[in-house]
Amino acid sequence: MRNSIPTSALSEFVNEVASSPEEALMDYGIEINWESGTRSRTETKSMKVGPHQVSRSFTWKADEPRQLMGNNHGPNPQELLLSGLGSCMMVSFIAGATAEGIQLESVKIDFDATLDLRGFMGLGTNATVGFPEIRYKIYVTGDATPEQFAELHRKSVSHSPNAQTILNPVGLTGEIISTQIQG
Amino acid sequence: MADHKILGDTASKTPNRTTGGWLNDLTRARSAGPVLADHPAPGTGLSTTAVHAGTHDDPRTGAVGTPIYQASTFVLNEHQYESVEEGFARDRFIYSRYGNPSQWAVQEKLAALEGAESAIVFSSGMAAITSTVLALMDKGAHVVASSDLYGGTFNLFNQEFPTLGMSCTMVDSYDFDAIEAAIQPNTQMMYFEAITNPLLKIIDIPRLAEIAKRRNVRLVVDATFAPPIAMRTLEHGVDVVIHSASKYLNGHSDLIAGVAAGPRKLIDMIWPRLLNYGGSLDPHACFLLERGLKTLAVRMRAHEESATALAHYLESHPKVKKVFYPFLKSHPDYATAKRLLKNGTGNITFVIEGGDAAALRLVNALRIPKQATSLGGVESLISLPFNTSQATFTTRQRADVGIDPGCVRLSVGIEDAADLIADFDHALSAIYAEKENAYA
After folding, report:
1. So what's the pLDDT on residue B437?
2. Listed residues A54, A74, A94: the one ending a domain
3. Does residue B97 have an active-site annotation?
């Protein structure tokens, strides 16, 4: 085990997918229910790893701080977005290091981002609604040279599904199913 | 690295490394095994396979047959250290809980008999079942299983699953609509037995495999009652086949063992559970199992011959109300048995007049069959569901699962059919004569 990833199993999976591409298709889903105010509860749906159904019984809550009319009962959606981005970049970095044979001792990614809520509020300024920029630093110790780590950083971002989803235009296809209640 | 010999599967090598490379540069692919040495199969027939597959002669002395590697641990060199670091420790000898040449030899024989890429032997059938099921299930997962499961498996699903946050729905193995309807979004496995106990239902495994594949769940089958001479279960679309090897596979009622066989990918997922749960098989037991397996094909033919003759005799006896033997035309699953089974087995279940009291008198009057639980040995074994496998049930509960009073479980050994028939003839005459005298 290098970095607690079985390199042989990783290699065998990559080679399996090369000949059976259906094994690479992952179907995900979550369901979010409004609880109260700005607080909501997310539940994972079953996942499919290739053609195989996998149980995913995980739940978590999101909320806003009291200053934003919430109760501060959980991380807010922006923190969860950064968490999803950073955790994916982390997997990519660790898997890439393992494939190269780099032994890691510690890895930390520190994220910062500034949001201007005037966009959300519709206050008619030039402020973007979303993050205009996301800043991060990766702190790593391991047996590679600074040049090797720099190259690993580049490759891990270019292969990270969540980083690439954020960097590239993505279709957001929704519909609303509404029921009007009698007041 | 060249100074030391590779102790293990020499074809298994460390994944290559490319500085600056990515995942697609990794070239190690999965292969069947692990195997100790490249010994080509001398034939493809199942009798030849039973004798020769996996078995190797001692390279130092020429002694015929696999030596017993009665060792807990192995001398280490850089190849073993590397296998641990790179995650292919299953392919090297390190410690006997991880793997041992005696285990590998019998695993290779079992894999060849089942037509599997890989197999693992365990210290019992239940160790094989627990390790396999928990390898293929995640937190919150659900299994759809047969409602007439073996008691040990039932206890795992009924007693242990809730503790682990897992659940099970048990359904009639004949009711394919109900089986399909029981599959939930968190269902990861369908778990069935090839032939059920004690009514010897022959389960339509190809039909179950079709459902499992279409609904994206794994199909695991316990084929203890249908060893590979009778049925190569994996050929019918099953993902992993499990056996209690204590029964037909070993065949001599002298050890406890289990096996799981299937694609290398899934068996490699089960292997860490062997390590974590600790159900490894002792080298001496591996030797006994390997030796027992060499005669599997001839034993199965002998079981079928004696069991068929005895089943016909019992069916013609006026005091025998019902006989369940899959190769009798009267068996409810005769057509399925003819389609799926290439060889019969020794299991016969029958119901005699006079209820459980008469059945108890019968097993006491017989001289050849031993009154004992288990099955698949060279000696005939006989037991009654009412005081063994279904002893916790009431008469009504037994009737609900099809077990009538007077039900007898018989595992016919390889004794001569004529002797078995004579023994039953004598015992049946004696017990009903006793009863008639008693009431006279």
Report:
1. 63
2. A74
3. yes
Contacts of residue B53, Cβ cutoff 8 Å, sequence gap at least 6: B41, B108, B109, B111, B112, B113
CATH code of the domain in which A83 resides: 3.30.300.20
Q: Do B140 and A55 touch (CB under 8 A)?
A: yes
Cβ–Cβ contact B80 with A under 8 A: no
Shared domain for A121 and A151, answered yes or no, is yes
pLDDT in tens, B7-51: 999 999 998 888 888 999 999 999 999 998 777 777 889 999 999
Instruction: Output the average pLDDT for chain B.
Output: 94
Question: Which strand (E) or helix (H) includes residue B359?
Answer: helix B355-365
Strands B167-171 and B142-146: parallel
Assign A34 to helix, strand or coil.
strand
Are B17 and A11 in contact (CB < 8 Å)? no
Q: DSSP assignment of B131-181, as one string?
A: HHHHHS--TT-EEEEETT--HHHHHIIIIITGGGT-EEEEE-TT-HHHHHH
Told to judge if B150 belongs to the known catalytic residues of this protein, a careful annotator would answer yes
User: For A149, which residue in chain B has the nearest alpha carbon?
Assistant: B20
Region A80-108: what's the mean pLDDT? 97
Express each pLDDT in B156-190 by its tens digit.
999 999 999 999 999 999 999 999 999 999 999 99
Asked if B356 is an active-site residue, the reply is no
Tell me how many domains chain A contains.
2
What whole-number distance in Å separates Cα of residue A128 and Cα of residue A134?
Answer: 13
Clarify whether residues A66 and A83 are in a common domain: no
Mutation for A interface: B16, B25, B28, most A CBs within 10 A: B28
State yes or no: ipTM above 0.95.
no
SS3 annotation, A121-152: HCCCCCCCCCCCCEEEEEEEEECCCHHHHHHH
Predicted structure pTM score: 0.92
- Residue A112 within a domain: yes
Strands A39-44 and A30-36: antiparallel
For residue A169, report the phi and psi dihedrals to the nearest 5 degrees. Answer: -60, 135
Q: Backbone phi, then psi, for B287, in 5-degree steps? A: -60, -45
pLDDT at residue B401 in the model: 84
- CB distance from B28 to chain A under 8 Å? yes
